[in-house]
Amino acid sequence: MGSRTKPKKIFVAMSGGVDSSVAAYLLKQKGFDVVGVYMRPWQPKGFTCLWEQDRADALRVANQLDIPFETWDFSREYARHVSRPMVRGYREGRTPNPDVECNRHIKFGYFFNEARARGADGIATGHYARTIRRNGSVGLRTAADNSKDQTYFLWGLTQRALDRVLFPLGGMLKSEVRDIAKKAGLITARKKDSQGVCFVGPIDMKTFLLSEVPSKKGSILHVDGRTIGTHDGAAYYTIGQRHGLDIKDGSGPYYVVRKDIRKNTITVGAESDLYSSTARIVDVHWIGKRPPAGRVLGAKIRYRSANAPVKIKGTTLYFTHPVRAITPGQSVVFYDGTAVVGGALLA
């Protein structure tokens, strides 16, 4: 009798949502030795967090699939690498993206390392993204479903992680994922996608920040220098924001075009005042080789923005056409067609 090859052991990050549920289901169907893991996040005091319900949903799906299930407590790691840096960023006038840091440090950092230490051949998540192997390295590619592509949040992944990660949903449409969940009878088939801060749940950012950053009244300045209103604290506002401004001069609409944390002022102007052709970047990370100097890439400066043609010279971005609301602290991700070249933080 011929010997059977032992199936590869894959630890699946199960969040309690439909995407990670289907990812685990598909891998089990393909014959992998699947282990489901729920990562307990940090929970801010005074807020009702949904993590216990999400964990219960993930456990129920694991039971449906007849796979082992574990809960790993990463609350301290979340606090250290995601929540505290995010709050610090807002205090300093930036607008951080916690989902980027959650992926970089927690899912593809601590979770990946722990899974490997426990004998996993690799990990899997429910992200909509794809990988490709070429010339001895692993590249990151956009998902088949453009409307759900999540590569914007994955630019911090290393070659070490990409070499051992599976994205079972990368070549599928969201509608297909829902259909698979329904046909398989998964209890998460009709569960709505999560919204809000990755480690908090369905609360808006200002509500969360009010619990972490004391309010402090300040002036709203017009781009021409006039004082035209007051605000609760410059840290709570972000570039391009329109709503939540206490301005009653009958003009407008007004948009936040810049902030001065030291003076606790925000400056507002018209839509046209939001556009710029240059930006500075920090914390640059290339997924593979750095692209040749002068190469025109596509730059996405926020999750739902279109790719804007850009050239990178040192730590400065030069956009072919002015782009709207360049926001310090947010990620900028660089694309060459469907390939994710790398990313950085806007300074």
Sheet with the most strands, sense and barrel status: 6 strands, antiparallel, barrel
Number of helices: 7
Q: From the alpha-carbon coordinates, what is the Rg to the nearest angstrom? A: 22 Å
Low-confidence stretches: none
What would the principal axes of the Cα set say about the shape? globular
| Helix and strand pattern | EHEHEHHEEEHEHHEEEEEEEEEEE
Structure, described:
- With 347 residues, this protein is an alpha+beta fold.
- Helix content is 25%, strand content 29%.
- The chain has seven helices and 18 strands.
- It is globular and about 75 Å long.
- It starts with 8 loop residues before the first strand and ends with a strand.
- The model has no long low-confidence stretch (mean pLDDT 94).
Which key phrases capture this entry?
18 strands; six-stranded antiparallel beta barrel; 347 residues; five-stranded parallel sheet
Summarize the helices and strands and which ones pair or pack:
Elements: E1 9-13, H1 18-29, E2 33-40, H2 51-65, E3 69-73, H3 75-91, H4 98-117, E4 122-124, E5 130-134, E6 137-141, H5 159-162, E7 165-166, H6 174-184, H7 205-212, E8 218-222, E9 227-231, E10 246-247, E11 255-260, E12 265-269, E13 275-286, E14 297-300, E15 308-313, E16 316-324, E17 331-336, E18 339-346
Parallel strand pairs: 1-2, 1-4, 2-3, 4-7, 8-12
Antiparallel strand pairs: 5-6, 6-18, 8-9, 9-10, 11-12, 13-16, 13-18, 14-15, 14-17, 15-16, 17-18
Helix pairs in contact: 1-2, 1-6, 3-4
